[in-house]
Amino acid sequence: MSEATAAATGVAPVAIPVREILPWAVFAGVLLLGLLYLLGIDQGATQLVPGSMLHEFVHDGRHLLGFPCH
Hints:
There is one protein chain. The chain is an all-alpha fold and about 70 residues long. The protein has helices at about 1-10, 20-40, 55, 60-65. The protein has 4 helices and no strands. The longest helix is centred in the middle third of the chain and has 24 residues, at about 20-40. The protein is elongated.
């Protein structure tokens, strides 16, 4: 009984300051918005990558996620 009590009191969660998480959260948000543009919004009319290769590459993924494309 005393071993279980000692093991339970020896573990403490580590506090992570928001200053350390914020840059990674912003980076992840920008990365996800870029992926959302490439997969869901880019229809070919205002695309950043010329040609239709990008559209054809993500075509099945667009339909899988419910984005209309044609």
